[in-house]
Structures are given as structure tokens and as C-alpha cells.
Amino acid sequence: MTKEEILDRTKAILAVVKPAVKQDDITFDSVLVKDLGLDSLSNLLMGLALEREFGIKIDDEARFVTVNDVCEYILKSIS
Q1: I want to staple 69 with a disulfide (CB 3.0 to 4.6 A). Which of 33, 45, 51, 64 is the partner?
Q2: Which residues contact 53 (CB under 8 A, 6 or more apart)?
Q3: Which alpha helices (DSSP H) does 1-79 contain, by range?
Q4: DSSP state of 53
Q5: What are the structural domains, with CATH classification, of the chain?
Q6: How far is CA 48 from the centre of its chain?
Q7: Residue 35 pLDDT grade (very low, low, confident, very high; cuts 50, 70, 90)
Q8: What is the pTM of this model?
Q9: How many CA atoms lie within 13 A of 53 on its CB side?
């Protein structure tokens, strides 16, 4: 799976978690809190959905600032 494919699937998840955010506005450089408006609850929901979508376990110590951070973590986890 490529990083771009991960981005597309992550965009779909973010659009469900934060319906006000349009998928077309999400890029690798989007900051989860500042640009997409994720709060602690939506961050938790995103993490649970990512685990389910990609069949991974996100470490409790993982900290994501940008969408790229999320995609890189997933890419490493499924490799």
C-alpha cells in the first residue's frame, strides 16, 4: 500500500469524524488540531477508526500533529 492510498483512506475517516472538513481540503501538511479542528474526542475516534481500517494498534505514546504523521505511522505499522 502506498502513502497516497493511506492518505485517501485517512481522508475518508477524517471526513466522518469531522463532517465539516472537506476531503479535498486535507493534505499531508494539514495540522490535525489547527487546520482540521480535531479535539480530544475526535482524535480518539480517528484513532479507533484507523485501527479498524488498517488492522493496526496505535501505541498510546503515539503523537500526531499532521496528517503526514498519521500516514507515516500507518505505513510503518503495516510494513
Answers
A1: 64
A2: 9, 13
A3: 3-17, 40-54, 67-78
A4: H
A5: 3-78 (1.10.1200.10)
A6: 10
A7: very high
A8: 0.93
A9: 22
